[in-house]
Design goal:
It is built from one helix and no strands. The protein is an all-alpha fold and 41 residues long. The protein has a domain at 14-41.
């Protein structure tokens, strides 16, 4: 039971960290894409 709880907590931490990285890189990607878009057209 204790092992299961710690594994769940570790998984939650990993998911939230990955979520922050994904949101961070997604924002950078959108910003670069919007900057490149007018010069392409």
């Amino acid at each position: 039971m204790i092992l299961n709880t710690s594994l769940g907590k570790d998984a939650m931490n990993r998911v939230s960290t990955d979520g922050l990285f994904v949101a961070f890189f997604f924002q950078i990607g959108i910003t670069l894409y919007l900057q490149e878009l007018p010069s392409s057209l």
